[in-house]
Structure formats: C-alpha cells, structure tokens
Specification:
Blueprint (H helix, E strand, L loop, with lengths): L2 E2 L2 E2 H10 L10 H15 L1 H13 L2 E2 H8 L4 H13 L3 E6 L5 E6 L1 H37 L1
Helix pairs in contact: 1-6
C-alpha cells in the first residue's frame, strides 16, 4: 500500500475529500477555539510524533512509545499522553498485574486527526519546489543586503 509520510493512500484520499478552498460562512466560536487548541497541539512535535507512532504500531506501552519517539523526556511524554487522552485522541489501559502494565492506543478520533494532518503532507509534496525556490531567492537577497 502506498504511503505519504506515514499515512496510507486511504488517509490521503480522506484528507483530500474533506479539503475545500471555501471558508465557512459563519464560524461557531467553540469550533474556532477547538481549532486553535488543536493547532497548538499539532504544532507540538511530540503530539504529532506520538500520533504517527501509534498509528503505525497500534497499541504500545509507555516505555516503547518513549523509545520510538526518541529524545522526549519521561515528564514530557507523560504530559503529552495525558493531554492526548484528555482530548480523546488515545485510550490509556491499565492492566491489573504486578507491576502494572499501561498501554496506549489511538481512538477513532486520534486516527481521524492523523488523516486530517495528512493534508499537510499533500500540500508539502505539491508545493515543495515552490517553497525551495522561495527560500533560495530569500537567502540570495539576504546575502546581498
């Protein structure tokens, strides 16, 4: 199955189907607040990395997520997972064994956010040459100044 980044063709198709150039006529302030919250979360590299890792690997234990993310502190991993759980993006399951085993998996909501983020991959692929050209032109102008 073809992928774009870590997203499947199905996720790409879903992102394209939901994209539009026309903004909504009226925006519910609650929706606007949620979008602002989610943009902050998506802009947080840890959330997106965890989202991608869980989408790719399924249910994982805390320590395994930390190893796959790489470079994240235990405190930041805990905070990020808690916020993702609060937002309904993942489910935390504590198994009653000694020592306790805790696993995390994405919810349908978390998977759908990954599909929505897939639009960024599509945009980046479609506009890579333009962005690179703009950066080169900027760097050349900045070097002359």
């Amino acid at each position: 199955m073809a992928t774009h980044g870590r997203f499947t063709e199905d996720q790409v198709a879903a992102a394209r189907a939901h994209s539009t150039d026309d903004p909504p006529a009226e925006v519910d302030p609650r929706v606007e607040q949620l979008v602002n919250d989610l943009i902050g979360r998506v802009a947080d590299k840890w959330t997106m990395l965890i989202l991608e890792i869980l989408a790719e690997h399924g249910e994982l234990r805390f320590t395994r997520i930390g190893k796959l993310v790489g470079g994240i502190s235990q405190k930041m991993l805990t905070q990020t997972l808690r916020q993702m759980e609060r937002d309904g993006l993942l489910v935390r399951t504590v198994h009653p064994v000694v020592p306790p085993r805790v696993e995390y998996r994405l919810t349908a909501l978390g998977l759908s956010l990954g599909a929505a983020f897939c639009g960024v991959w599509i945009w980046a692929g479609d506009h890579l040459a333009q962005v690179e050209q703009a950066r080169r032109a900027f760097d050349e102008r900045a070097a002359r100044e």
